[in-house]
Amino acid sequence: MNQHITTMVQIKITASIKKLGETSIEVLTEAAEAVGLDSIIVTSTQRPTRAQAETMLTNIEQNRNIRYKWAGQQVMDLARRMRSTKEPREDIIAAMTAKIEQLAEQDMRVSKHCVSDAEYEECNVIDVSYRDMPEDKQVPFLAQMVAKPEVVKIIQPLTREIAGFDMAEPALHFEIEQA
User: Fold this and answer.
1) Residue 8 contacts by C-beta under 8 Å, 6 or more apart in sequence?
2) Cα(125)–Cα(20) distance, rounded to whole angstroms?
3) Is residue 5 assigned to a domain?
4) Staple 24 to which of 20, 36, 81, 154, CB 3.0 to 4.6 Å?
5) For the segment 75-110, what is each residue's pLDDT rounded down to a tens digit?
6) What share of the chain in percent tops pLDDT 70?
7) Containing structural domain, residue 100
8) Residue 173's closest CA among 68, 98, 53, 97?
9) Concatenated DSSP letters of 73-116
10) How far is CA 1 from the centre of its chain?
């Protein structure tokens, strides 16, 4: 996994964990080059439990209704209950982090961003900022990513015409299997 990536397309990673597998780099670079982008910004990769809790709480605070599966909903429900009783933000994050860890011990995953190193090395889960792309390049980039067989899942807020549409998603979410 690379910390710094050098290609014709600049891939900037603003996430706290700067991990991208070689396959992810190739797929992102090819898609960007195909639509004439000279850079893309990866805003999220693998997340530790606390960072996952912070992200989930921020989504609640910004009224984003991310559609988590059962385990994620348990964490979101906990946060909403604590917010309704005006608990301090730091206490909410601590409780959410503990809940995420408890669920992980029961082999329940809250988010595909929040996985072990071994799992992440098999399938990179990344978010790419579409807001930092020219508007006329956003959907074409997304279409290029959809065409890549290594991209096994997409969640995106741009168009109902492409798989994985979710208007609450704040970025382009890609799950990319590594070779």
Assistant:
1) 29, 33, 38
2) 9
3) no
4) 20
5) 999 999 999 999 999 999 999 999 999 999 999 999
6) 96
7) 49-105
8) 68
9) HHHHHHHHHHHHTT--HHHHHHHHHHHHHHHHHTT--S-TTS--
10) 17
Angstrom distance (rounded) from CA 141 to CA 103: 35
Same domain flag for 71 and 154: no
What length does the chain have?
179
Indicate whether 168 and 120 sit together in one domain.
Answer: yes
Asked if residue 148 belongs to a domain, the reply is: yes
Say if CB 155 and CB 166 are below 8 A apart.
yes
Judgement on whether residues 154 and 130 belong to the same structural domain of the protein: yes
- Count structural domains, the chain: 2
Residues 172 and 121 in one domain: yes
**Under DSSP, is residue 38 helix (H, G, I), strand (E, B) or coil?**
coil
